[in-house]
Design goal:
The chain has a single domain, classed as Uracil-DNA Glycosylase, subunit E (3-Layer(aba) Sandwich), CATH 3.40.470.10. Helix 2 packs across helix 5. It is an alpha/beta fold. GO terms for molecular function: pyrimidine-specific mismatch base pair DNA N-glycosylase activity; uracil DNA N-glycosylase activity.
Length: 240
């Protein structure tokens, strides 16, 4: 059994190597043509909000990041509660911290104020957009696409083994930047193509405001991500 309490990540940990030509839509299975996760009806989203609308709030939250992590989690942008707290995923209705614990990514449920403890388990967090908003809809698609190069620079600098993208809108922006078009209707949550030998796993947003997906749908994807992550951890621990 994997002992997460015994696992302590260091930036000199062994990193697996992969061919630059390796394209992975799912680590262990053939991709399907459509997502099995059905959306529920949702309320009308807010309109775009210019940066000055939230200028009274802190304009960024510190990254939780180190070189050569197993997993770098990519959030969209800070919510209002997160911006005020200065710790990632501080919204009281956000499922992020419970999902990490319930999936086995962390051995205990961390409080947002303990966010830097994620580094002990080989995980980190950053956002594609720094500025805060109440809802994701208050960001523009153009703004997201224009933020992709800076995100790629960060990934290249810190070289995580894989990234976990929280929210399809982030992956949409990456695909638009890379190919000039957004993903089609055949998009499926889970493993996508690699980016410069970095694995990419996409999960719907953990925000409680994104109520169109059930928490169990999110947990199922976190469990799949955790299965890969724990295999990487076991490689470092050796025989248990």
């Amino acid at each position: 059994m994997l002992d997460l309490d015994a696992f302590k990540y260091t930036s000199n940990s062994h990193r697996s190597t992969r061919s630059t030509s390796q394209i992975r839509l799912n680590r262990n299975s053939t991709p399907k043509s459509s997502s099995p996760y059905a959306k529920s009806p949702r309320k009308s989203p807010r309109n775009y909000a210019a940066p000055q609308v939230y200028a009274h709030l802190p304009q960024s939250v510190p990254d939780i990041i180190a070189p050569n992590l197993h997993l770098l989690i990519i959030g969209l942008n800070p919510g209002v509660a997160t911006a005020k707290a200065g710790h990632v995923f501080s919204g009281p209705n956000n499922h992020f911290w419970p999902l990490l614990y319930e999936s086995g990514i962390t051995p205990v449920q961390l409080h947002p104020s303990e966010d830097r403890r994620l580094l002990d388990y080989g995980c980190g967090v950053t956002n594609i957009i720094d500025r805060p908003t109440t809802e994701a809809s208050e960001l523009s698609k153009t703004e997201l696409v224009e933020a992709v190069p800076r995100l790629f620079q960060k990934i290249k600098l810190y070289q995580p083994k894989s990234i976990c993208v929280l929210g399809k809108s982030i992956w949409d922006a990456i695909e638009k930047h890379e190919s000039g078009r957004y993903p089609g209707k055949d998009f499926r949550y889970g493993w996508q193509r690699d980016i410069d030998r970095v694995g990419v796993f996409v999960i719907m947003s953990t925000s409680g405001r994104v109520a169109c997906y059930k928490k169990q749908d999110k947990l199922n994807l976190f469990l799949e991500m955790a299965a890969w992550l724990n295999k990487e951890r076991q490689k470092e621990q050796g025989p248990i």
